Amino acid sequence: MRIAGTVQESIVDGPGLRFTVFAQGCPHRCEGCHNPQTHDAHGGTERPVSDIISEMLKNPLTDGLTLSGGEPFAQAEDCAEIAEAAKKAGLNVWIYTGYTFEELVVAGDGSAERNLLGLADVLVDGRFILAERTLEYPWRGSRNQRLIDVRRSLSEGRAAELPYPAEPINNLGGK
Ligand code: SF4
């Protein structure tokens, strides 16, 4: 998998202590993006998915996995392998994406994107919009971005947003 990097003990990419993988490559090119070095799909470094999984499982204190970027859905199969290993280890899974929930659902059953979406507990969705930039919405950069309860959304067939403060947000699908 092509990655921009990993962070072992992140406290800013979701609740609790998280292992974060920054996927390399992003087609969205949002104006004002904080991680422009992740845009080039040929940049970053190539790492075996098995290495990334071993690194994730090294720290027993980790609460969850966050897949960020770049665009994780541009490498949906590799990201799904990591997310599956995280779920097996009892970690909750958050995914940051420039796509909206609705755009990902359109990819359809059986697609790599739909498979990855189904492994997420929370999706932080939508492009970063500079005019909507805010520091007031936890875990998001702009007001249009949503915290989506993926399981509920898929069963109800519409994007179900998590309220904030969200009471059992720490308990979503993991420790
Ligand atoms: S989706 Fe995220 S990484 Fe990609 S350009 Fe937009 S803000 Fe940057």
Strand content: 15-25%
Number of domains: 1
Q: Could you tell me the number of beta strands?
A: 7
* Cofactors, ions and other ligands in the entry: iron/sulfur cluster
Major sheet: arrangement of strands: 3-1-2-4-5-6-7
CATH superfamily: Aldolase class I
Structural class of the secondary elements?
alpha/beta
Count of discrete alpha- or pi-helical segments spanning 4 or more residues: 5
Quote the CATH topology: TIM Barrel
User: Please, what is the average pLDDT?
Assistant: 93
User: Percent range for helical residues?
Assistant: 10-25%
Largest sheet: 7 strands, mixed
Euclidean distance between termini CA atoms: 27 Å
Segments where pLDDT lies below 50 for 5+ residues?
166-171
Instruction: Write down the secondary-structure element order.
Output: EEEHEHEHHEEH
Please tell me how large the radius of gyration is: 15 Å
CATH architecture: Alpha-Beta Barrel
Q: Tell me, what is the CATH class?
A: Alpha Beta
Apparent shape: globular
How would you describe this protein?
The chain contains five helices and seven strands, in the order βββαβαβααββα. With 175 residues, it is an alpha/beta fold. The chain has one domain (2-171): TIM Barrel (Alpha-Beta Barrel), CATH 3.20.20. It has a seven-stranded mixed sheet with strand order 3-1-2-4-5-6-7. The chain starts with a strand and ends in a 19-residue tail after the last helix. The model is unreliable at 166-171 (pLDDT under 50). Bound molecules: iron/sulfur cluster (SF4). Residues 26, 28-30, 33, 35, 38, 69-71, 98, 127-128 line the site of iron/sulfur cluster (SF4).
